[in-house]
C-alpha cells in the first residue's frame, strides 16, 4: 500500500472523505459525461468554463480535451459546409469560433489562442482540397 492509499484511508476514517469504490467513481464519471454531451453547445461551453473556474477541471485536462476534439469538430464543420453547398474556406471553418466569445475566452485561458484554431482550420482546408477527411 502506497502513501496516497494510507493518506486516503486516514481521511476516510477521520470523516473527511467518503469511501467510494473505483467502479462507482467510474460510473458516476460516465453518467456525468453523457449528461454533458446531451447539452447544447452553448451550455457545454458554459459548463466547461464553470468547471475550469471552480477548480473541478484543470487547465491541462481541458486543453487536452480541446486539442483532441477540435480536429473532429473542424472536420464536421467542413462536412456541414459541403452539405450546404458552401465552399470550405478557413474563414468559413472559423465562423463558429468567432461567434462564441465565451469559448474563445475559455480556450485562450488554457493556452489555445486564435492562431492555434486558424492553423487547425488551415490543415482541414488543405486536407479537404487534397482528399477529404
Structural features, described:
- This protein has 133 residues and is mostly helical.
- The protein has two domains: 1-38, no CATH class; 39-130, no CATH class.
- The protein is 76% helix and 0% strand.
- The protein is built from eight helices and no strands.
- The protein has helices at residues 3-13, 22-37, 41-54, 59-83, 90-93, 95-99, 101-109, 114-130.
- It is elongated, with a radius of gyration of 20 Å.
Which features characterize this protein?
single chain, 133 residues, mainly alpha, 8 helices, elongated
How are helices and strands ordered from N to C? HHHHHHHH
Q: How would you state the average pLDDT, rounded?
A: 90
Poorly predicted runs: none
The beta-strand count equals 0
The span between the termini is: 47 Å
> How is the quaternary structure best described?
single chain
Share of β-strand residues: under 5%
Integer count of domains = 2
The secondary-structure class comes to mainly alpha
Using only CA atoms, what is the Rg? 20 Å
* Number of H- or I-type helical stretches: 8
The portion of residues assigned to helices is over 70%
Amino acid at each position: 500500500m502506497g502513501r496516497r492509499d494510507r493518506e486516503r484511508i486516514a481521511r476516510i476514517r477521520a470523516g473527511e472523505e467518503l469511501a467510494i469504490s473505483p467502479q462507482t467513481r467510474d460510473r458516476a464519471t460516465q453518467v456525468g459525461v453523457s449528461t454533458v454531451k446531451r447539452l447544447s453547445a452553448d451550455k457545454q461551453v458554459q459548463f466547461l468554463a464553470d468547471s475550469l473556474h471552480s477548480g473541478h477541471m484543470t487547465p491541462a485536462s481541458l486543453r487536452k480535451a480541446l486539442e483532441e476534439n477540435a480536429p473532429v469538430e473542424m472536420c464536421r464543420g467542413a462536412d456541414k459546409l459541403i452539405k450546404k453547398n458552401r465552399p470550405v474556406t478557413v474563414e468559413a471553418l472559423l465562423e463558429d469560433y468567432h461567434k462564441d466569445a465565451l469559448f474563445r475566452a475559455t480556450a485562450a485561458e488554457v493556452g489555445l489562442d486564435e492562431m492555434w484554431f486558424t492553423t487547425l482550420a488551415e490543415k482541414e482546408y488543405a486536407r479537404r482540397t487534397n482528399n477529404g477527411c
